[in-house]
Structure formats: structure tokens, C-alpha cells
What we know:
Layout: E1 6-7, H1 14-28, E2 31-33, E3 45-47, H2 49-68, E4 73-75, H3 84-89, H4 92-95, E5 97-102, E6 109-111, E7 130-133, E8 137-139, E9 149-151, H5 157-162, H6 164-171, E10 177-186, E11 201-211, H7 216-233, E12 241-245, E13 257-265, E14 268-279, H8 281-290, E15 296-297, E16 304-305, E17 308-315, H9 316-327, E18 328-333, E19 336-341, E20 352-356, H10 361-374, E21 380-382, H11 388-398, E22 402-406, H12 410-413, E23 415-420, E24 426-430, H13 434-442
Parallel strand pairs: 4-10, 20-21, 20-22
Antiparallel strand pairs: 1-18, 2-3, 5-6, 5-7, 8-9, 10-11, 11-17, 12-13, 13-14, 14-17, 15-16, 18-19, 22-23, 23-24
Helix pairs in contact: 2-9
The chain binds glycyl-adenosine-5'-phosphate.
Amino acid sequence: MDEEIKICYNKLNLMDKMEKIISLCKRRGFIFPGSEIYGGLANSWDYGPLGVELKKNIKDEWWEVFVRGRGDMIGIDAALIMNSKVWEASGHVKEFTDPLVECKKCHQRFRADQVGEKCSNCEGEFTKAKQFNLLFKTFLGPIEDASAEVYLRGELAQAMFVDFPNVLQTTRKKLPFGIASQGRVFRNEITPGNFIFRTREFDLMEFEYFVREDEWEKYFEYWLEEMKKWLSHIGVKKDYLHFHEIPDGERAHYSKRTIDIEYDYPFGQKELYGLAYRADFDLKNHQEKSGHNLTYTDLENGENFLPHVIEPTFGVDRTVLVALLEAYHEEEVGGETRVILKFPYWTAPYKVAILPLSKKPELSKVAEEICEDLRQNFVCDYDDTQSIGKRYRRQDEIGTPYCVTVDFDTLNDQAVTVRDRDTMRQDRIEIKKLKEYLNGKLQ
Ligand code: GAP
């Protein structure tokens, strides 16, 4: 069968591919436009039943790899709204800005670093650029005055600095060690767009890795390598990655060195992840502004100092987008186009689909029993609608690695047909050996 498959993936026009993925995401329940029945809300997206599984697989695996799988990392899950003094001390109230210009004719607003001389909408002239702060403001409690003003968090990092003494005291960790976190952050982006690439609320996974100052370079290199391993684990091809050293004057206000890991998206080479050396910028500022001692004491020699920080940061939604882009394949089979999401097995929303050949009660009974049993070990889908061919296509399109078909022979031979997503090979497997077979394949 393999020889019959003609890969036409590379021929896909790139923007066409992006549109196909957005449409597949909507059609199959990965990602929907937000607030759709009210006409939507620009650039807001909701994860549907399959999208939430994909995203959860990514977040859970990241936690396993970087937190539970290591002795030098612990996690926290902090409040989204923090004391406003945190964002003043961190420099975000002053520095977390993008340059904004407005067209004098049509009054559309743009990021100054993303436009040409004239407005792309109406050829109008732009105003002078002014700095626009990305933090979202709201009010805590019933009185809407300046004293109640707070910010939705713009990054996860600050809680890991502010909680540093509590974590140190409760875990007694020795340097080097990291504090990790996952969660939602908010940024009032001037120009969101490109599906889930740039939105105004998104999920992050990041950690602050605390080291001695003289070891920062060693750990910077170390974490760059670990980030590359993670990217390979999620199935990203090396050729699509670029490591961009951000020059002086262009880095975030807190960083002494940054490498942006960029990816070749259909809409251009843009940031996927970041790796920053934040030195002692944050701990020093919080110590000064809060008056609280944030130093670390080496119990062996009594040395007392502020640790330095290496910060690897991973956008969850950009990871989902890249996972979809890498997985999307079109193949020609028997004159028809077969669309497949070739996810690595661990990211696939469903691992196994159980498909009774007909809705006849004797088949449904066996198929439902198999499904209930497999569900103890794998995330399963059960589908008894339409022809078996259409059901295979549907499972290919959502990336399910294995389909188990229950047919009329099953009633006699107590066996089922297992179809492999990538090779389309079909094996006849005894029901009593099915779990073992799938375990072997999906491990
Ligand atoms: N604590 C460091 C930090 O937040 P960042 O480069 O500002 O660094 C981290 O953001 C990551 O968040 C980026 O590498 C990217 O993956 C993701 N990201 C940034 N802005 C985003 C947006 N508007 N929408 C979706 N993801 C975004």
C-alpha cells in the first residue's frame, strides 16, 4: 500500500495549508472562533473537544518532562491577579510596551515595527509612534477608582520570583534549581492575528532556573539543548527552526541575553519560544521594592547572595499551532486525497477509535464492551455513523493512530481488524490480545 501513496505535502501552497488547517480545526472540533453565535470577537478562539485533548497532552507531557521527571525542578500555580506593586517593581508598568502608530486618514492602529511608510488600508500617513502598554487593567472589588486598579498577569515569571522565598523555605532546594508554572496570561496586543499565533490571552509554560552568577553561560547552553530535544519530541523538523540571537537594544527590559527560537510558519519566520538570561534583575528589584530578603544562603559555606536566572519560555498555543502544521499531510490514495494528521502518538487527541461495521445490536454490544475495556488504558472514540471508509477518513483527519473495526466475523472468531493510521495496514487481532497489541504499538 505504501507504494501507492504519493506524498503531495510539499506541493501544498503554504497559505493554502494554513487555511486548510483552520477549516479542519473548526470542522472536526479542535478550535472554534470565540463567541461565534454573537458574530464572534476578533482574534479570540475556543478549544473544542479535540483541541482541548491535544493541548492537555502537550501541557501534561511538558510537566512530566521538565518538572516531575527531574529532581531539580518544582512547580507552582499562582493567582492571575497580583498586587500591582509586583508589576511596578518588575518594570512591566513602564517598559512592557509596543510602539503604536495610527493612520491619520482611516484611524486604524498598527505596531510601528510592523508597517511600511504608508497605511496598508488606505495609503494614509501615520502619526508619530508612541509607546502602548500591553498590560490589561481591571478593578478589584466594587469601586472603580485608582486604588482598586490591578493588572491581569502579562507573564507567569513574576509569581515565581515573588514566591521564591516561600518555595525555598518549604522545599530546601539547593542551587541550581528551577520553579516552573503553566497558565493563562493576558496581553493587549495591538495587532493580534494569524489564527492562534498572536492572541490577547494565551497559555504559557515556563520556568525560572536559579543559578550562581558565574554559571549562567553553562546553563544557558544547557537549556537551549533541552529546548531542542523538546522540539524534536513534539515532531518539529530541524530545518524549520532558526535560533535568533536578539541584539543589544532589542531585548526585553529584563534580559541580558535572549535567543528566540523561530519557526517557518506559512506566514513567515517568527518566534515560537524564547530563552532569556534575566540575571538577578527581578529578584533584585523585588527585594528593593518589597523590603523583603530574597537572597539564597549556601549552607555549606554561609555565602549569601541573589541567584541569577535562566528562563526558557514555551507558548502553549504556538506549540499547538506547530504541532498541527507539522502533522498535516495530504496523500493521494487510489485517485482520492487522504488528509492525515500524523501526530506523534502521545499528542494525538484519541489513541484508538472503535468502529462497529453496522449498528446491529449484536455488533454494538461487542463493540461497546471493547470500547469500555480499552477506555481504561487509552483515550477512545466510538463511531458507528456512515460508511466504514468515511469513518476511517474522519479518524485520519483527527490523527487517531489506530482504528478497531468490529465486523460480523468478530461474532465467530472473537477477533477484530486493527488499522494503522500511517501505513493503512490492517491486522486481524484476537479480542483477548487487543490491549496488549495496542499497548505495544502506542508505547
Ligand atoms: N516570561 C517571558 C515571556 O513571557 P515572551 O517572549 O514575552 O516571554 C513567551 O513570551 C512566549 O509566549 C513566546 O515565546 C510565545 O511562544 C508566546 N507568546 C507571546 N505572545 C503571544 C501572543 N500574543 N499570543 C500567543 N502566544 C504568544
